Amino acid sequence: MQQFTLIAELTAGATVIDVACFGLSGQQKLINDDYMTFYNQPRTPCGAISWQSTTIQQRFDIDLSKLPDSVDYLVLTATIDGQATMRELGASSVTLEQAGQILATYQFDGSAFDSERAMMLFQVYRKNNIWRINAIGQGFNGGLDALVTHFGGDVADELTDQLSTINTTSAAPLVNATKTEQPTAVSLKKVILDKPGSEHRINLTKGSHDYLTVEAIWIDNGDASADNDDLDLRVGILAQSSKDMNYVHAPKQIGNLNSIPYVHHQGDVQVASANEPGKETVLVNPAIAEYYGGKVALVFSVYSAVSNGVVSIASLQPKMRMQYQDQIVECTFNIKASPKAKSRFVYTYVIGIAIIDEQGITLRHSGETSKRMSEATPKLTWKADTVQLKMDGAAMFKS
To answer: Which residue stretches of 182-341 are H helix?
Structure first.
């Protein structure tokens, strides 16, 4: 499929929301300013992307065949006017449409956001010469400037002014549709888990080689120190047939996707800023249960090292985002469920627990914390088909 339209419908009362499409390189950097498409620059020089708006929609007509080879990503973004934040969003969506048929829809609202003033909505990207789609839903506190800087561009004052005056009200391959085909709509609706014990199940596609992607995302806590905005994503793995856990964390034990533990950490991230959230990522081999010969439990937690300085985990508002193909589940931070995380002497917070079998993945929100001044890590045990969590595992350090 070469020609299609991305339709953004974002609602926030009378608040102005601006949508733009960035053309990025394989390194996810803006190839040049001509490939930032929005109301004041509604068409790329190559004619591959054009913008238009109606009363409630902003539409981007895209022809992939006209894109230069240097463009591997098209990222749809949104910024909100003034001092408003993305939390004020009502029912919103991004829809991929071809020849009047809806092929994919990503639905969301402001419940997953806090003080963010910009967000990456949706991307179309090229992998192994196949164009694919992915719903993102990642917020930025710093607005337009944060987005442009994130993509490696320079922020000009006149560009910021132009975008602030507009008046408008997560990966599956794109289907190579012909006139005789009836494409199947792909729902990219994000499921939000915000209460301990709440859970959602994702079905696995047998024979698929798509990895399960799990991200821990946190914000800058707003204080004057940059050193204490560092959380470490840790994964504990326990097969139902085993009594001993494996652990994955960066940089010492990053794991392996093709051998035990079938989980791989993508690297240590040491800072979050007001402009860009911190994020650490692990990949999980979806055939992990097959390789272990039965169910496998994974516990995902974030750790704040004492050496990084005084900080409460609650101030960083950590959340976990899990995606498998077009299915997305988020475990958000809930201060009412985890009041102990407000203490600067609590170092570990458990975001969620996943149970993986050969048919699917059940993700459960946790919210558990370590005891005050304890370096203990999350520890799992199996009791029949039930997984139990205790915060009494051995301490782990980066060095």
So the answer is: 288-292, 313-316
Fold for the domain defined by 3-187: Lipoxygenase-1 (2.60.60)
Buried/exposed 228-256: b ≥16 CB within 10 Å, e otherwise: bbbbbbbbbbbbbeeeebbbbbbeeeebe
The structural architecture, per CATH, of the domain 190-393 is Sandwich (2.60)
Residue 158 contacts by C-beta under 8 Å, 6 or more apart in sequence? none
C-alpha torsion sign, points 63, 64, 67, 73: positive
Answer yes or no: same fold for 3-187 and 190-393. yes
- 214-271 confidence digits (pLDDT tens): 999 888 766 655 555 688 999 999 999 998 999 999 988 999 999 999 999 988 876 6
CA distance 301 to 235: 7
Q: How many residues does the chain have?
A: 399
Cα separation, 214 vs 195, in Å, equals 19
Name the DSSP letter for residue 223: S
Q: Is the pTM of this model over 0.85?
A: no
Instruction: For residue 89, give the nearest of 143, 9, 195 by alpha carbon.
Output: 9
Report domain extents, the chain.
Answer: 3-187, 190-393
Q: Dihedral of CA 75/211/92/141: which sign?
A: negative
